[in-house]
Write a structure and sequence with these properties.
With 429 residues, the protein is of the alpha+beta class. Helix content is 36%, strand content 21%. The protein has 3 domains: 120 residues, Adenine-n6-DNA-methyltransferase TaqI, Chain A, domain 2; 148 residues; 139 residues, DNA methylase specificity domains (Adenine-n6-DNA-methyltransferase TaqI, Chain A, domain 2, Alpha-Beta Complex), CATH 3.90.220.20.
């Protein structure tokens, strides 16, 4: 490491300030992010901290590190970081991640990161211009990842909106019923009135698509009124098969080496695309664990633990442990199944049981009641969403590659192993 880096302690460089209690942030519509121990938890109309800043989790099993470009609020399960000297705030964020301050534990029954335990830790501080250059390099990668996340949020919103319009609100069927003068069930009168009130602003589907939908409704015991000719079924009716995975024995090295097979655990299941896994097993481990390959475009549901009920879409072929349920959809049901299940996360999570660990069963997942449209509608829905999901998947793959690059560079830049040329620092910033 070059001599111009200063050896110091965290207590000499920063102060960790306690967050404050606040009510209603989970449902508030304010413009400022509220952060807790493991990331964003809501919104508020009044920030606690002006300007950009770093948040460090203080209490709980999961204590993360976050960076906010905008003013923000911190609740009392986290700290916000106040520099004591001129320091680049985004460099501080990466330094806290590099030195793993969020993993410091005081050994109490409730896992906690104390200020006293942080302040005595050593660190090396580069000159401010080099801090800014390091933050610029790593921050540019994170900014691209965030831009992709926002674009994918828009893409998913488009897919969700189309699903809701066709299979929840039944807009095309209501439009056909209105055009034909057919009766509208009382439960759908409000939606019909809203559609009718749009007048010329109402935009029915193109005729060849509009004709795929019926013009009347039928009553069902389980789901109420549904379009005439459609049926009520179970999510298993949309699938070729539904399977759980398996775990190889931990004490047999050959089951885990070489690292050939991507192996998904329940804790990794988050809404959106699964582009990579943290763990890999061997082909032999796959065979001995009773796990099975899960194909690309399958939907997976976490069954155990904190993520029980979470749903994700597979960007590539993988396998899973027994705490993950994989739904391999029938042709034309890939996107229908995923969006339906993503809308059912709350229902699934509410059915989780267990004192030590929350869990749901494969049977609960496969028995979820679902509306079954006619074949032509499902085929059309699948085709319309193909380019949306393709773009979404491409963005996720690109973000995964960017994250790998960032994770490779971060320890090299923060340790001084990789130095940015001094003469180019001003240009880089």
């Amino acid at each position: 490491m070059e001599s111009e880096w200063t050896k110091s302690t965290w207590g000499d460089e920063v102060s960790l300030e306690y967050g404050k209690g606040i009510r209603g942030y989970q449902t508030a519509k304010g413009r400022y992010r509220v952060f807790g121990a493991n990331g964003p938890v809501g919104w508020t109309s009044k920030p606690l901290v002006q300007g950009s800043g770093v948040i460090l989790g203080r209490k709980g099993a999961y204590r993360g590190v976050e960076y906010s470009k905008e003013p923000f609020f911190v609740i009392d399960t986290a700290y916000y970081v106040q520099p004591k000297k001129p320091l680049d705030m985004r460099w501080l964020y990466y330094a806290i991640k590099y030195y793993r301050l969020g993993e410091i534990d005081d050994g109490s029954p409730i896992p906690s990161t104390t200020r006293a335990a942080v302040y005595v830790r050593d660190l090396s501080v580069p000159p401010l211009p080099e801090q800014k250059a390091i933050a610029h390099v790593l921050g540019s990668l994170d900014d691209k990842i965030e831009a992709n996340r926002q674009m994918n949020s828009t893409l998913e919103a488009m897919a969700q909106a189309l699903f809701k319009s066709w299979f929840v609100d039944f807009d095309p069927v209501i439009d056909n019923a209105l055009a034909a003068g057919n009766p509208i069930p009382d439960e759908l009168q409000a939606r019909a009135a809203a559609r009718e009130s749009l007048g010329d602003a109402r935009k029915p589907l193109p005729e060849h698509l509009q004709n795929l939908f019926p013009a009347s409704f039928t009553q069902t015991e389980e789901l109420g009124w549904i379009p005439e000719g459609w049926a009520v079924g179970r999510i298993r009716d949309c699938c070729e098969k539904i399977q759980n995975g398996g775990t190889p024995k931990r004490n047999i090295k050959d089951y885990w080496q070489p690292l050939q097979v991507p192996w998904l655990t329940s804790g990794e299941v988050r809404r959106g695309f699964i582009t990579r896994t943290e763990t890999f097993i061997s082909e032999l481990g796959l065979q001995k664990s009773a796990a099975k390959w899960v194909p690309e475009d399958a939907t997976v549901v976490a069954l155990y633990g904190a993520t029980a009920g979470q749903v994700a879409f597979c960007a590539s072929r993988l396998t899973t442990n027994q705490a993950v349920c994989a739904l391999i959809s029938k042709e034309n049901y890939r996107f229908f199944s995923y969006i339906f299940l993503s809308r059912s996360i709350g229902s699934l999570a509410n059915q989780a049981r267990g004192s030590a660990q929350q869990n749901i069963s494969k049977g609960i997942v496969e028995e979820l009641p679902v509306i079954l449209p006619n074949t032509s509608v499902v085929q059309t829905f699948d085709k319309l969403l193909e380019p949306v999901f393709a773009k979404w998947k491409l963005n996720e793959s690109y973000s995964s590659d960017l994250a790998k690059t960032r994770d490779t560079l971060l320890p090299k830049l923060l340790s001084g192993e990789l130095r940015l040329p001094i003469e180019e620092l001003e240009v880089a910033v």
